[in-house]
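[Solved] Which block belongs to which protein?

Original post:
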Amino acid sequence: MILHWPFANYYNAWRELEKLYEEGKLRAIGVSNFEPGQLVDLIAYNRIVPAIDQIETNLYCQRAEERKWLDKKNVAHMAYAPLGQGNRNEMFSEPEVTALAEKYQKSTTQILLRFLTQKGIIVIPRSTKPEHIRENFDIFDFILTEDELSKLTALDQKTALIGNPNNPELVEMSLTW
């Protein structure tokens, strides 16, 4: 089970998840949208380290600094929105991405997902179409070179495309859900 946002009284919410985990009612507990400072703070004042932090991660929002902290605290990095907001962004038409798609005879989606998984990031692409789900899984029969990874890494804009938990308007909206 995942504590979705670091808002309101998330310490109490986390402690309730810890109780459920210790009672054997949950197999794992984690967080979502926690920035490194929030994660370190949560870990310092609670008994159980989150198994996972699910944060927006994609070609334009690669979260390199966050990954360092997640690795240091042994927290798995799960990428939601690994393709951004679908076709509403330019990552699918980046020349580096399209060239790799042609080279490996893969879709640009597959290149973007492979890029993240090859960095050790768990991806959860959203799809309801069986053909897209199959395509999303078909990314383990090729390996990007270090040079290719570097070129894709250079495209990082360090900008969340969907939701930035440091944005007061997003926080306000989330508190009313």
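(Second protein starts here: sequence line, then its structure tokens.)
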Amino acid sequence: HAHPTAEQLYESLRQDHPSLSLSTIYQTLDTFIRTGLCRRVSGAGDRLRVDGTPQDHDHAVCRLCGSIFDVDRDQLQLPVPPGQLSNGLMVTGIRFEYEVICQACQEAPGRARS
């Protein structure tokens, strides 16, 4: 599924809601992230990207084109996180991000493979 940026959401909504501002999008996404309705996608560079899928899953980010893909945890054996880290921080979850070269980039003529 898509992992849209705030700007992409703004562009898709502004035709139907001309008074909408990009600031409102950022504020709404911040509220959604804080309340657990969506989560920030890490590894997406300096642009805010969000993920609206509530089920636990991880992401793979293509290091060439920046595309983001969902990775189903059922396919993997992941470590069980401790309840607390040695410095007293309570662990509330764990996420993995895989650096990949996507299929499209692998098949693109002239792209280096590594």
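Accepted answer:
You had them paired correctly. Confirming on the second one: Residues 1-54 form a domain with the Arc Repressor Mutant, subunit A fold (CATH 1.10.10.10).
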